[in-house]
């Protein structure tokens, strides 16, 4: 993975946040989704460094952001407070924020709790299944996935979860590379640790989260809901469409689908983000 500049840490209540900076200009905070960590954003961040001070951080419990004591249950509110403290450390000005998947939950919560810290929030496909007419199916599927995690471990649960995220089905998932290099092996090991934390401490806690829509409508910053051009009827895209409808805004289209665009088309995704941030 590409390394960013100035790796450092910030003490927050109950954890130490690892974050890295690159570039110059107004702050752009990147918030990764569940299972991932900031490592997946390094290549993408470098493509924005000519216009922004890009901040890529590991959410508490992921990657290099360790908890002080035993692992604990997570909440969107707790993670939003971490993002608030990180922005307070880095800038006195309103910042741009890109939140991906459940990271978009955190950006949205930040926008409603600390609106003065945001200039523009791009919430890319927040999977707010509470807004969907078939939300009870997703809740039942979530309970089943969690039970698979308890019985069979994170790998089996992640296979089921990933397929539902992609298309709402349970088709056979793609396997890992047949001959991974050392970098890929390290990445896979890190994602495995992240998956354990995700299912044990975050998956069920985030599943029924619903934003304060009134506060979000009244937030002084600009709120953009993003969706993948190739997402089709994937659940997170449907949820993004539903949230945008509730807010009375159009979805901003980005390359790729829920998981592929930012990693497989980073140049196009970065160019689209720049255009959105320019308004």
Task: Describe the fold and architecture.
The protein is α/β, with parallel strands linked by helices and 279 residues long. The chain folds into two domains: 5-132 and 210-278, Alpha/Beta hydrolase fold, catalytic domain (Rossmann fold, 3-Layer(aba) Sandwich); 135-201, no CATH class. The chain has helices spanning 42-46, 76-90, 102-113, 135-152, 154-167, 182-201, 203-206, 213-218, 235-247, 261-264, 266-278; strands at residues 5-12, 15-22, 27-31, 53-57, 95-100, 118-124, 222-228, 252-254. Helix 9 (235-247) links the parallel strand 7 and strand 8. Helix 2 packs across helix 3, helix 4 runs antiparallel to helix 5 (154-167) and helix 5 (154-167) packs across helix 6 (182-201). The two termini are 31 Å apart. The model is unreliable at 169-174 (pLDDT under 50).
Topology:
Layout: E1 5-12, E2 15-22, E3 27-31, H1 42-46, E4 53-57, H2 76-90, E5 95-100, H3 102-113, E6 118-124, H4 135-152, H5 154-167, H6 182-201, H7 203-206, H8 213-218, E7 222-228, H9 235-247, E8 252-254, H10 261-264, H11 266-278
Parallel strand pairs: 3-4, 3-5, 5-6, 6-7, 7-8
Antiparallel strand pairs: 1-2, 2-4
Tell me the strand percentage band: 15-25%
How many helices? The count is 11
Sum up the overall morphology in one term: globular
- Structural class of the secondary structure composition? alpha/beta
CATH class of the largest domain: Alpha Beta
Separation of the first and last Cα atoms: 31 Å
CATH superfamily of the largest domain: Alpha/Beta hydrolase fold, catalytic domain
Total strand segments: 8
Task: Catalogue the unreliable spans.
Answer: 169-174
CATH topology of the largest domain: Rossmann fold
Determine the mean pLDDT: 91
Domain module count: 2
Order of helices and strands: EEEHEHEHEHHHHHEHEHH
Major sheet description: 8 strands, mixed
Percent of residues in helices: 40-55%
Radius of gyration: 17 Å
Strand order of the largest sheet: 1-2-4-3-5-6-7-8
Q: Which second-level CATH architecture of the largest domain applies?
A: 3-Layer(aba) Sandwich
């Amino acid at each position: 993975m590409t390394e960013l500049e100035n790796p450092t840490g910030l003490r927050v209540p109950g954890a130490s946040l690892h974050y890295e900076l690159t570039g110059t200009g107004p702050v752009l905070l990147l918030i990764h989704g569940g299972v991932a960590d900031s490592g997946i954003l390094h290549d993408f961040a470098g493509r924005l460094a000519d216009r922004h001070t890009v901040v890529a951080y590991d959410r508490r419990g992921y990657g290099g952001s360790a908890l002080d004591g035993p692992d604990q249950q997570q909440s969107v509110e707790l993670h939003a407070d971490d993002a608030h403290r990180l922005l307070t450390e880095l800038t006195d000005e309103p910042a741009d924020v890109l939140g991906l998947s459940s990271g978009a939950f955190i950006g949205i919560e930040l926008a409603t709790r600390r609106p003065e810290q945001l200039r523009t929030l791009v919430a890319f496909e927040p999977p707010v299944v509470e807004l969907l007419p078939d939300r009870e199916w997703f809740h039942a599927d979530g309970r089943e996935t969690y039970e698979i995690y308890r019985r069979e471990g994170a790998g089996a649960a992640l296979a089921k979860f990933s397929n539902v995220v992609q298309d709402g089905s349970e088709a056979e998932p793609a396997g890992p590379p047949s001959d991974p290099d050392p970098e890929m092996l390290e990445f896979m090991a890190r994602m495995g640790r992240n998956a354990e934390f995700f299912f044990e401490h975050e998956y069920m806690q985030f599943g029924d989260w619903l934003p304060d829509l009134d506060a979000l409508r009244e937030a002084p910053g600009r709120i953009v809901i993003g969706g993948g051009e190739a997402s089709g009827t994937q659940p997170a895209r449907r949820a993004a469409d539903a949230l945008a409808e509730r807010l009375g805004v159009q979805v901003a289209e980005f390359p790729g689908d829920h998981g592929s665009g930012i990693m497989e088309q980073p140049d196009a995704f970065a160019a689209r983000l720049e255009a959105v941030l320019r308004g």
